[in-house]
Specification:
The complex is a heterodimer of chains A (about 180) and B (about 425).
Chain A: H1 30-39, H2 50-61, H3 66-76, H4 80-87, E1 101-106, H5 109-113, H6 116-127, E2 141-146, E3 158-160, E4 163-165, H7 173-177
Parallel strand pairs in A: 1-2
Antiparallel strand pairs in A: 1-3, 3-4
Chain B: H1 27-32, H2 37-43, H3 47-57, H4 69-74, E1 85-90, H5 100-106, H6 108-121, E2 126-131, H7 136-151, E3 167-172, H8 182-189, E4 213-217, H9 218-230, H10 232-236, E5 248-255, E6 261-266, E7 269-270, H11 271-278, E8 288-292, H12 303-308, E9 310-311, H13 313-318, E10 327-332, H14 337-351, H15 357-374, H16 382-393, H17 401-415, H18 417-424
Parallel strand pairs in B: 1-2, 1-4, 2-3, 5-10
Antiparallel strand pairs in B: 5-6, 7-9, 8-10
Classes of the chains: A alpha+beta (about 180), B alpha/beta (about 425).
Chain lengths: ~180, ~425
């Protein structure tokens, strides 16, 4: 519907090769493997650990590359096609590399009514991102619009990586970006 | 309380008493505030007695559907030898709604207590709390609180020494509104795409992992310990005349009011008191144009409907809408209603899981037609076309996402037709570039 909101889509500055990712280093070794192993007893199936496992790959690599899909499929005893099918349903998994700091701006009705569009403009201007979904030339930021962040009384909310920021105005944007190097 | 504002005298503060009080977040802090007494009491009762007490209180599902909670719990099979599950729906994503977020980030142990109590009542040894992926702060608070509750023996292999095993597992979503629909939530938890399931079978018969399951909203679960502590009669008395809607309800108010926030009201409170008094009314010089009272999925209300509306499940229906999740979007006379309805349609088009044709096509075409109207290229027949589409999108799909997209469109055209006609006649300048 709205291709502008696809994270790191065609407009991304660092498009990933859609093919085999030869340089992929496995994620599920050492402490991350231990974290996943600790989850298995909490669920009656391994498959139930699919969303958590994809989160672990994204936390470790910044996105979910093809190699990550293959690895998750292997450790959960699923097929890569199945894992890809689930991955693509959920908007928070990055299917392409994104900037070091990934900024999601809520622009659904209550935020739109409260001036979110001006916050989006300020973010694009101050980060140097050419458009929504694109990564800034210095690789520092990617900005996307997102649907309702569930903080409609705190317009406009942003999610910068895992930091949830409330009551953001265009004036606050330059200052708050400084803490994300 | 009206967090982030102080309590208003007209609120009935039960669930929101400790919003904004960081001291209530820790296990010790929660115990000091009287926490876990409801769970301890429940563990000394039979599951049947708990369910009877909840039934007698009149508590109904706070996620939007308003289904009687005790009745839902009673649907779980007895002594069937199967594993049972409780799922707590913390996938709060309905535009306008931000109450569960505050419950989790200020009073995480209230939710753990409610989950443990409900788990015991339905003979579930495991409760999964499905938290939307964007709720990073509530997640961290809940993660700490669950670890504390295990360490204190409040949950785990022997909850408060009762011999009862109650495990609580946090599960993170990954960005999909539809996973707030209970059967989609279960699919997502199982490691699948979040497509809603056809019912029947209902979750109490075959739910998570094919086993008997109850799904409750965060706000519903946190109400349960209060009911056991103070009694069903106390809860039932929190009502202003309609015995079918009892207790308190958190109303998240956003949009063009002077004091947006969460307000905890007794069921039956007049809507105009909430908007004009508790929330401080409109900004200076503005007047009310429209209200969407129950999250974006319910019909839009006019100021006239607001004036007579009683806020409970039946009262809001009588006034032409639905109480839903209690996410109230207030719009003043500066609002371009056609634009906001398009924006909501775009939301539903973005969030459709695309299983059902009526929804996949209907939400997308509704959005495009509204965009066409906003761009000045609308046709006189477009309003009838939208209504016809909406008719095909209502009551015809696996879940109600499609109906939810139709609700603001149909009510918008019926109640605010002039706003649409202003675009169609060229009286109003286009607000979108050509599409």
């Amino acid at each position: 519907m709205n291709p502008k909101t696809v994270p790191g889509g065609p407009a991304g500055a660092t498009p990933a090769s859609p093919g085999h990712d030869a340089k992929y280093e496995p994620v599920f070794v050492g402490p991350i493997k231990a974290r996943l192993d600790a989850l298995f007893p909490k669920y009656p199936t391994r498959q139930a650990c699919l969303l958590p496992a994809l989160w672990m790959v994204q936390e470790a690599r910044g996105w979910v590359p093809d190699g990550g899909i293959d690895e998750v499929a292997r450790v959960l005893e699923l097929t890569p096609a199945y894992v890809r099918g689930v991955l693509t349903f959920y908007t928070m998994y990055h299917q392409h590399p994104v900037g070091r700091h990934f900024i999601q701006v809520c622009t659904t009705s209550p935020c739109n009514m409260g001036g979110a569009e001006e916050v989006v403009k300020a973010l694009l201007r101050e980060t140097g991102c050419k458009e929504l979904g694109a990564t800034s030339p210095d690789g520092r930021f990617t900005v996307i619009e997102t649907e309702c962040l569930g903080a409609c009384g705190f317009v406009t909310p942003l999610l910068v990586n895992d930091d949830f920021l409330e009551n953001v105005t265009p004036e606050r944007v330059p200052g708050l970006l400084q803490s994300y190097k | 309380m009206g967090y982030p504002h102080p309590s208003h005298a007209r609120e009935t503060v039960v669930l929101s008493q400790y919003f904004g009080d960081a001291g209530a977040r820790s296990y010790d802090g929660w115990i000091k505030r009287g926490g876990y007494e409801g769970l301890k009491k429940a563990l000394g009762m039979t599951p049947e007695a708990i369910i009877e007490e909840i039934k007698a209180s009149g508590l109904r599902g706070r996620g939007g559907a308003g289904f009687p909670t005790g009745l839902k719990w009673s649907f779980m099979p007895k002594n069937d030898g199967k594993a049972h599950y409780l799922c707590c729906n913390a996938d709060e994503s309905e535009p306008g709604t931000f109450k569960d977020r505050e419950i989790m980030r200020w009073t995480p142990h209230a939710l753990i207590e409610g989950c443990a109590l409900a788990s015991y009542a339905i003979a579930a040894e495991t409760c999964y709390i499905y938290i939307r992926g964007e709720f990073t702060e509530p997640w961290k608070v809940m993660e700490t609180a669950v670890a504390e509750a295990y360490a204190a023996g409040a949950i785990g292999a022997n909850a408060f020494g009762s011999g009862q095993r109650i495990d609580i597992v946090l599960h993170r979503g990954a960005g999909a509104y539809i996973c707030g629909e209970e059967t989609a939530l279960m699919n997502s938890l199982e490691g699948k795409r979040g497509n809603p399931r056809i019912k029947p079978p209902f979750p109490a018969a075959a739910g998570l992992f094919g086993l008997p399951t109850t799904i409750n909203n965060v706000e519903t679960l946190v109400a349960a310990p209060h009911i056991l502590m103070r009694g069903a009669a106390w809860y039932k008395a929190l009502c202003k005349g309609n015995p079918k809607s009892t207790g308190t309800k958190l109303i998240s108010v956003c949009g063009h009011v002077q004091r947006p926030g969460n307000y905890e009201i007794t069921m039956g409170t007049p809507m105009k008191d909430l908007i004009y008094d508790m929330c401080g009314g409109m900004r200076p010089g503005r007047t009310l144009k429209a209200v969407i009272p129950g999250g974006s999925s319910v019909p839009i209300m006019t100021p006239g409907e607001v004036d007579t509306c009683i806020m409970d499940y039946e009262g809001v229906v009588a006034a032409g809408s639905m109480l839903g999740s209690g996410g109230m979007i207030v719009m003043d006379d500066t609002t371009d209603l056609v634009y906001q309805i398009m924006r909501l349609a775009r939301f539903y088009a973005h969030e459709s899981c695309a299983q059902c044709t009526q929804c996949r096509e209907g939400t997308a075409w509704t959005t495009r037609i509204l965009e066409r109207i906003l761009s000045g290229a609308g046709k006189p027949s477009d309003l009838d076309l939208l209504l016809d589409l909406a008719d095909n999108m209502t009551g015809t799909t696996i879940c109600v996402l499609s109906d939810s997209c139709a609700a603001p469109v149909v009510s918008g055209i019926h109640k605010f037709r002039g706003d649409f006609e202003a675009y169609l006649s060229g009286k109003r300048k286009p607000s979108l570039a050509g599409v």
